[in-house]
Write a structure and sequence with these properties.
The protein contains 10 helices and 11 strands. It has 344 residues and is of the alpha/beta class. Strand 1 and strand 2 form a beta hairpin. InterPro entries: GlycoTrfase_DXD_sugar-bd_CS, Nucleotide-diphossugar_trans, Och1-like.
Length: 344
């Protein structure tokens, strides 16, 4: 009888232990499976993961209208972002001027324009890319993004390639982009009002029409969310135009393009930046907000300058639109059947 009670006690102990273990497992929270672009962190560190949120080249990119705010690390971006409205990894805009020369020799008028930048800004670093060095620049910096790299290198129309190049350079290095036919009148250090110095990631100026950003001169920090949006927008437009004509982007020509300004130029840049601002700010942002502004206006982290700043000659020198910073001469070397200079 004593042996029976002993075995019965062991059986009861085993049953109780099993029930206790099962109950403990049931109370534990489920494990978290981390996927690409996910982050488990405090709200204070939420922006630190934005550089990791990259779409691999074999994944489809989300349409611009469906993209969520860049500050959310769970939403992958088209290209990695280092500077956005709530994430600043660089305190100032690089003091470097980027320009691109065509295959033809730079004439005396353009040489004078180039020297104006260095005369007004003696410490300005300066680099002029050629066709070959521009291609090498893109190969070097976008090797991990074959969609961008291959489409850029395959573009046969010089102006389309030049428009995309400026955005790619501003994305990688930031600084100041200016076309060769632009004269600088005021020091770059004076372009951003003091109250916006620590809040500005990108500086754009209105064209003479007063409702579109000029693309001949742009100033920005590297890897901003807005330049990423412009690159994505332009790439989508190029692909759509090629598809409309049942060709590849490598087969595009000027007869297939209704309007370069709308496809890759200032209108495309304006639409993309305004769309991105609206997405990030969560409120309607459109041309009505920028039309004919009379003083520098900050939209989140985008500083918009009135049209006197970048389009003084074209605007008839309006007296109530701030200082004249640069002057565009509209040399228009791209306005021909080839869409720009081609190698001889």
């Amino acid at each position: 009888m004593g042996r029976f009670h002993y075995l019965l006690g062991l059986l009861l102990l085993f049953i109780c232990s099993f029930l206790w273990i099962a109950s403990s497992l049931a109370r534990q929270p489920p494990s978290i499976v981390l996927t690409h672009g996910s982050c488990v962190c405090s709200e204070d560190n939420v922006t630190a993961a934005s550089d990791a949120a990259i779409i691999p080249s074999n994944r489809p990119e989300p349409p611009i209208k469906d993209m969520k705010p860049i500050s959310n690390p769970k939403i992958p971006s088209y290209l990695p972002i280092a500077n956005s409205h709530d994430h600043h990894t660089q305190s100032s805009i690089p003091f470097k001027l980027w320009q691109k020369a065509g295959s033809q020799k730079i004439n005396d008028a353009r040489q004078k324009d180039i020297h104006s930048w260095l005369d007004v800004n003696p410490r300005l670093r300066h680099e002029i890319l050629t066709d070959d060095s521009a291609d090498e620049y893109v190969r070097q910096h976008f090797a991990e993004y074959p969609d961008v790299l291959n489409h850029y290198l395959s573009l046969p129309v010089p102006i389309l390639k030049a428009d995309l190049l400026r955005q790619l350079i501003l994305y990688i290095d930031g600084g100041i982009w200016s076309d060769l036919d632009v004269t600088c009148h005021r020091p770059i250090s004076t372009w951003i009002p003091e109250q916006y110095q620590n809040k500005t990631n990108i500086v754009v100026g209105l064209e003479f029409d007063g409702f579109q950003f000029a693309s001949w001169t742009i100033m920005t920090k590297p890897k901003t969310s807005h330049i990423v949006a412009v690159i994505k927008y332009v790439m989508d437009k190029l692909k759509a135009t090629a598809a409309q004509h049942h060709v590849t982007t490598a087969e595009l020509n000027m007869t297939m393009i209704n309007d370069v300004v709308e496809l890759t130029g200032p209108q495309a840049m304006t639409v993309a930046i305004l769309q991105n601002l609206q997405k990030e700010m969560g409120i309607p942002v459109g041309r009505a907000n920028i039309t004919n502004i009379k003083e520098p206006t900050l939209f989140q982290d985008v500083l918009v300058l009135p049209n006197a700043a970048f389009a003084s000659r074209q605007g008839g020198y309006p007296e109530d639109r701030g200082p004249y910073l640069v002057e565009h001469h509209y040399a228009g070397s791209w306005k021909n059947a080839n869409g720009g200079e081609t190698k001889s």
